[in-house]
């Protein structure tokens, strides 16, 4: 009897731990995502010199206008996260781009996903891209800072530490896969480490001038 009681007592902490484990929200396929995928699936047969891959920060860039004369594929989807991006890599691989600029993760942070979960998805993304596109140059870009003063979205407030932790975790992954990592903060961050006020109206999305400076900066870094 004592043995049975002891076993039951030992089981309680494990059960309690399972009950308090954070819930992982891996959803991504909303109406907007599905609409963009309907479009992209019609375009995946077109080869691309440069493919920009990410969420709304990528999608809002007029890359084809900023880089005339090149075959550009904009594969940003507003609101996308690492789960959604991972699910659509077959189409990216189908296009066989010569170069990919990857930027993803802020929406994962916004929904409260643990950094280790996001980094696990990053590993899966980089594994699939490097295996499917062995000749493609993949540039992994840091997640951008936000501007707390301008942010109207409560769920994105006070995320600077997690952005920093995520970027610190991405660096060794890029090294492991022998990929270029670009820290965008020297361009986009002010002296306090926040997104420059002149680059944003809502604290997270970028103004057109930011994209112009971004492309010019990438050229100075000899990535374009």
UniProtKB/TrEMBL annotation:
Range of residues in the leader sequence: 1-18
PANTHER family from the UniProt entry: SGNH HYDROLASE-TYPE ESTERASE DOMAIN-CONTAINING PROTEIN (PTHR30383:SF5), THIOESTERASE 1/PROTEASE 1/LYSOPHOSPHOLIPASE L1 (PTHR30383)
Bilayer-spanning residue ranges: none
Domain SGNH hydrolase-type esterase intervals: 52-210
Keyword entries, A-Z: Signal
Organism, as annotated: Chitinophaga lutea
Source organism, top-level taxon: Bacteria
Cross-referenced SUPFAM superfamilies: SGNH hydrolase (SSF52266)
Record-linked Gene3D superfamilies: SGNH hydrolase
Cited InterPro entries: Ester_Hydrolysis_Enzymes, SGNH_hydro, SGNH_hydro_sf
A Pfam family annotated for this UniProt entry: Lipase_GDSL_2
GO molecular function: phosphatidylcholine lysophospholipase activity
Annotated protein name in UniProt: GDSL family lipase
């Amino acid at each position: 009897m004592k043995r049975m009681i002891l076993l039951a007592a030992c089981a309680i902490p494990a059960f309690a731990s399972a009950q308090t484990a954070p819930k992982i929200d891996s959803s991504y396929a909303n109406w907007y995502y599905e609409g963009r995928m309907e479009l992209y699936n019609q375009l995946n047969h077109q080869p691309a010199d440069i493919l920009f891959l990410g969420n709304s920060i990528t999608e809002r860039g007029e890359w084809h206008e900023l880089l005339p004369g090149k075959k550009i594929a904009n594969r940003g989807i507003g609101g996308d996260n690492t789960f959604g991006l991972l699910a659509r890599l077959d189409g990216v691989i189908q296009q066989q781009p010569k170069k990919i600029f990857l930027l993803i993760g802020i929406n994962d942070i916004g929904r409260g996903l643990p950094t280790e979960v996001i980094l696990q998805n990053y590993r899966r993304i980089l594994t699939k891209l490097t295996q499917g596109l062995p000749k493609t140059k993949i540039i992994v870009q840091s997640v951008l800072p936000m501007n707390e003063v301008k942010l109207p979205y409560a769920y994105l407030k006070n995320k600077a530490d997690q952005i920093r932790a995520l970027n610190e975790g991405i660096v060794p992954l890029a090294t492991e896969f022998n990929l270029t990592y670009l820290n965008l903060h020297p361009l986009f961050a002010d002296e306090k480490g926040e997104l420059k006020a002149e680059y944003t109206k809502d604290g997270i999305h970028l103004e057109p001038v930011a994209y112009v400076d971004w492309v010019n900066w990438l050229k100075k870094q000899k990535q374009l």
